[in-house]
């Protein structure tokens, strides 16, 4: 039989994405792995493999191909594990400054309530149009990371349409840019691309655009949609109201729920049984409490003018860092599942190859014996 009739199913492990399976495909040898919703995903690996009908040469080539794929996915897993540690350190190190800055701004804003001073970024007005800053990744192979935040954005747009509100999108990331470019009916104010590591310069470019839209009253509210890093196997898309300034002095979503993380997970690479593995450490970030009796020598308006740009920049930079950490964690989990599937696929192919080789040898022996008996 031709090798194109070969189809093999291997159940996959759970991952961050909705489609946690990996497909190893070629023009001659299609290998397909089912999703978690497939009926075979609940069966054992031994009972979920169908018979293989393929030549010995094709099986040998396929085993070599799967070995190479396993090496690639394992390397990508280790690279993502090394990068997610640095990304999470950047998030945790910047969190005390970000949270303290918000508390300072809130305290100054409370002092200005009794004065007749116009501070546009802290003034809430009737909402007619909303700006959505959607942060996605620049690369794939990270499970359902990009799909999750895009679905969150689509759901938020549907809610705004039901409320009769207008909206515009500021897309950050190549995946989000390509998605919105293919849908011209979605109003997009600007397309931005992120780098390999978020910097204050990138955050400032987004903050300048957001600032101009809000101050000119083109939009009455700015919402930041990004993926919050929770743990190595969990990331949740959140909507954070960026402007006007939160009256509670904390980072909240559109429902008023605080999205600050109480605990963080750190990861380190170690060796176990001759292989590199990842271990977790849970730490709690402590921030200094803001003194309610603190007084300012400068004019509060001058302090606000200096701190509000820092506020926008720090919150956007923090969202970019959280999104990057979530993307790397999702890629690490996806590559881990891909490596496990490759190992199981290689094992199954090796068994089929050995059986085919033994059957061929047995057939040749039978032919020799039969020929010798015919000559007697």
UniProtKB/TrEMBL annotation:
<keyword id="KW-0934">Plastid</keyword>
<dbReference type="InterPro" id="IPR023632">
    <property type="entry name" value="ATP_synth_F1_gsu_CS"/>
</dbReference>
<keyword id="KW-0150">Chloroplast</keyword>
<dbReference type="GO" id="GO:0045259">
    <property type="term" value="C:proton-transporting ATP synthase complex"/>
</dbReference>
<dbReference type="InterPro" id="IPR035968">
    <property type="entry name" value="ATP_synth_F1_ATPase_gsu"/>
</dbReference>
<dbReference type="Pfam" id="PF00231">
    <property type="entry name" value="ATP-synt"/>
</dbReference>
<keyword id="KW-0066">ATP synthesis</keyword>
<keyword id="KW-0809">Transit peptide</keyword>
<dbReference type="GO" id="GO:0009535">
    <property type="term" value="C:chloroplast thylakoid membrane"/>
</dbReference>
<keyword id="KW-0139">CF(1)</keyword>
<keyword id="KW-0406">Ion transport</keyword>
<keyword id="KW-0375">Hydrogen ion transport</keyword>
<dbReference type="GO" id="GO:0030234">
    <property type="term" value="F:enzyme regulator activity"/>
</dbReference>
<keyword id="KW-0813">Transport</keyword>
<comment type="similarity">
    <text>Belongs to the ATPase gamma chain family.</text>
</comment>
<dbReference type="GO" id="GO:0046933">
    <property type="term" value="F:proton-transporting ATP synthase activity, rotational mechanism"/>
</dbReference>
<comment type="subunit">
    <text>F-type ATPases have 2 components, CF(1) - the catalytic core - and CF(0) - the membrane proton channel. CF(1) has five subunits: alpha(3), beta(3), gamma(1), delta(1), epsilon(1). CF(0) has four main subunits: a, b, b' and c.</text>
</comment>
<comment type="function">
    <text>Produces ATP from ADP in the presence of a proton gradient across the membrane. The gamma chain is believed to be important in regulating ATPase activity and the flow of protons through the CF(0) complex.</text>
</comment>
<keyword id="KW-1015">Disulfide bond</keyword>
<protein>
    <recommendedName>
        <fullName>F-ATPase gamma subunit</fullName>
    </recommendedName>
</protein>
<dbReference type="InterPro" id="IPR000131">
    <property type="entry name" value="ATP_synth_F1_gsu"/>
</dbReference>
<keyword id="KW-0793">Thylakoid</keyword>
<keyword id="KW-0472">Membrane</keyword>
């Amino acid at each position: 039989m031709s090798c194109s009739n070969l189809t093999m199913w291997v159940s996959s492990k759970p991952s961050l994405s909705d489609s946690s399976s990996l497909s190893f495909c070629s023009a001659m040898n299609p290998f397909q792995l089912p999703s978690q919703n497939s009926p075979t995903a609940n069966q054992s690996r031994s009972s979920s493999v169908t018979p293989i009908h393929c030549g010995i040469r094709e099986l040998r080539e396929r085993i070599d191909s799967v070995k190479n794929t396993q090496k690639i996915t394992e390397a990508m897993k280790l690279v993502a594990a090394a990068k997610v540690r640095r990304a999470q350190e950047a998030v945790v190190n910047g969190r005390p400054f970000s949270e303290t800055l918000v508390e300072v701004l809130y305290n100054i804003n409370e002092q200005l309530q009794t004065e007749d001073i116009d501070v546009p970024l802290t003034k809430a007005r009737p909402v007619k149009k909303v700006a959505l800053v959607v942060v996605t990744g620049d690369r794939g192979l990270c499970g359902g990371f990009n799909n999750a935040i895009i679905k969150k954005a689509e759901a938020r747009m549907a809610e705004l349409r039901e409320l009769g509100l207008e909206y515009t999108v500021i897309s950050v990331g190549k995946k989000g840019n390509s998605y919105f470019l293919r849908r011209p009916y979605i109003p997009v104010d600007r397309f931005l691309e992120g780098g390999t590591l978020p910097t204050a310069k990138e955050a400032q470019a987004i903050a300048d655009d957001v600032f101009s839209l809000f101050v000119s009253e083109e939009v009455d509210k700015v919402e930041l949609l990004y993926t919050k890093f929770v743990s190595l196997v969990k990331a949740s898309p959140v909507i954070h109201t960026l402007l006007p300034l939160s009256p509670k002095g904390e980072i909240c979503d559109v429902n008023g729920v605080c999205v600050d993380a109480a605990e963080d997970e750190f990861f380190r690479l170690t060796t176990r049984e001759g292989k590199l593995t990842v271990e977790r450490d849970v730490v709690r970030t402590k921030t200094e409490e803001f003194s309610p009796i603190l007084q300012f020598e400068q004019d509060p308006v001058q302090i606000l003018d200096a701190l509000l740009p820092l506020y926008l920049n720090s919150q956007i930079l923090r969202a970019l860092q959280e999104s990057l950490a979530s993307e790397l964690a999702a890629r690490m989990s996806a590559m881990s599942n891909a490596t496990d599937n490759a190992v199981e696929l290689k094992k199954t192919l090796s068994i089929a190859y050995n059986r085919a080789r033994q059957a061929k040898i047995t057939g040749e022996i039978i032919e020799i014996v039969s020929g010798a008996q015919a000559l007697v």
